[in-house]
Amino acid sequence: MTLDDQQIVPEDRQDAPEPSMLRVRNVSKTFGETRVLREVSLDIAAGETRGLVGENGSGKSTLIKVLAGFYQPDPGAEISVRGRQVAGSLTPLGARDLGLTFVHQDLALVPSLTVSDNMTVNALAASRSWRVSPKAEARSTQKLLDEYGLGIDARAAVSSLTQLERAMVAIVRAIDGMRESAAHGQAGLLVLDEPTVFLPKADRGLLFDLARRHTSDGGGVLFVSHDLEECLEVTDSITVLRDGRLRGTVPSKGTDRADIIRLMVGKELNLSSRRPTPPAHLPVVRATGLNGTSVRDVSLELGPGEIVGITGLLGSGFDELPYLISGAGQGATGRLAVGEREFDLASMRPVDGIRAGIALVPGDRARQGSVASLSVLDNLSVQALPTARAWFGIDWRRLRTVGQRLIATYDVRPQKLDVAYGTLSGGNQQKVLLARWMQTNPGVILLHEPTQGVDIGAREQIFDIVRAGADAGAAVLCASADQEQLSLLCDRVLVMRDGAIVAELLGGDISKAAIARESLGSARQSVPPASRRAATS
Ligand SMILES: Nc1ncnc2c1ncn2[C@@H]1O[C@H](COP(=O)(O)OP(=O)(O)OP(=O)(O)O)[C@@H](O)[C@H]1O
């Protein structure tokens, strides 16, 4: 079914019942000379779960930061929560007092503190009392966790929890922060800013159960996501931003992914299908007896032109492999052959990997892949510096010319070399990282969650970049928990459990369902060290 234009409701013309949970009118935001939000107006009703989607850089995070009081909107904006209008400038504390609570991607938990300390830290900061009883706090936190049936120990350190448990703690903390107002029939708006992005899909349902309890208490939820299927599944309606403008709000029921994409991108988007499997050749990478923190005695081979996915549940070790093979794995052991070069992982350094033609694009791009405060040009040029030496020093003119070409080829938005890398949206940061590495024509490309937090159009562009690298002869290893991504991108998918490779899917056998089945499947024998595909070459 396609979306009838009449179903798209421009928010400022919407007849929202007054007072709505959240009422936003005419919110614009300008950074320097760039206007990134333009006259956004929207209403969210009590009891409603609203999705917020848009391409990378469309302004979602900026809107959320305005609501959180981190950014002041341009003059002329009006924001009210349950009929209470923000007087003057909204501040983070003011936002909380109004009933706006946020759970961001990083969850904002302190890993070294206990669950109970994390749960109460905000309340303590706001409290005027000087008396704190850790025991009493732990008891009430435990009661709360038990009420939600989470099975988490309030005295456990957050660092000992799984990613899912941490996300649940962050959401329960947010809901609990609004409890007092909820008791007076004034439950607030819970803003979920992609807190599910690091979680396997199977686990995410539990988080949405928590959010649903909040809406059934009369609260509202605003859910920011790039996962359109999930968004359609868990929301009542979806608001679409494009180029900082609100393009409309559609009911989730009766709308499909293609409708949303059309609103997001402004045109039809041809979604890719898998490319033909490349012919088998001698492997570029041969890893034997790899051991790391979770990985135990893993061996694998990667052929030239081959895109291999590696996946599994959290803790299975799949996400450690790119780092082990790049020489960046701590305490790693095993042997690695890259073309003619051989390495003992115990003594291999990342620089050895770079010299052997290995490119690692890490998952945590904020901390491992880049320097946020440096410019896009600086971040792009790190790998090219050795080749840009001239008799007078670094040839920055040449680097600028190359950089300009790269941001145009990789469609980095905005196409400006001098802006701080940290101000780019998530998907554009990822494109800069890929551009940086691809300019070195690597023989081996190691990727960890290459499209996390990336919109559907940019995802296609990143797939094309990776495919072009493979077509040029590189061996690609893509570690990801995103089963759809693996099924679209990979020629071969290896599935890990308990630190070992337990299954291999090839060509037409690769599907989301098959990957899920193998990831969850009961304990089975490891597949032989060298892959079937490489073994036949
Ligand atoms: N502090 C800032 N200074 C200058 N420009 C900024 C700043 N913050 C954001 N921008 C720009 O505003 C635009 C919107 O960015 P925003 O982060 O809101 O997009 P987004 O929709 O959240 O993207 P993503 O899905 O990638 O997270 C981008 O072009 C970004 O480069």
Describe the structure in your own words.
- By secondary structure, the chain is of the alpha/beta class.
- The protein is built from 18 helices and 22 strands.
- Strands 6-7-8-3-9-10 form a six-stranded mixed beta sheet, sandwiched between helices.
- It is globular and about 70 Å long.
- Adenosine-5'-triphosphate (ATP) is lined by residues 31, 34, 36, 54, 56-62, 414, 423-427, 453, 455.
- It comes from Lysinimonas soli.
- It holds the Pfam family ABC_tran.
- This is Sugar ABC transporter ATP-binding protein.
- GO terms for molecular function: ATP binding.
Short overview:
By secondary structure, the chain is α/β, with parallel strands linked by helices.
Report the portion of residues in β strands. 15-25%
Low-confidence stretches: 522-537
The DSSP helix count reads 18
Mean pLDDT: 83
Major sheet strand order: 6-7-8-3-9-10
Ligands bound here?
Answer: adenosine-5'-triphosphate
Short descriptors:
disordered C terminus; ATP binding; AAA+_ATPase; 537 residues; ABC_transporter-like_ATP-bd; alpha/beta; globular; ABC_carbohydrate_import_ATPase; binds adenosine-5'-triphosphate; 22% strand
Please specify the SSE layout and strand pairing.
Layout: E1 22-31, E2 34-44, E3 49-54, H1 60-67, E4 78-81, E5 84-85, H2 92-98, E6 100-103, H3 115-126, H4 134-147, H5 163-177, H6 179-183, E7 189-193, H7 201-216, E8 220-224, H8 228-234, E9 237-242, E10 245-251, H9 257-265, E11 285-291, E12 298-302, E13 307-312, H10 321-326, E14 333-338, E15 341-344, H11 350-355, E16 358-361, H12 376-381, E17 389-390, E18 393-394, H13 396-409, H14 426-438, E19 444-448, H15 456-471, E20 475-479, H16 483-489, E21 492-497, E22 500-506, H17 512-520, H18 532-535
Parallel strand pairs: 3-8, 3-9, 6-7, 7-8, 13-20, 13-21, 16-19, 19-20
Antiparallel strand pairs: 1-2, 1-4, 4-5, 9-10, 11-12, 11-14, 14-15, 17-18, 21-22
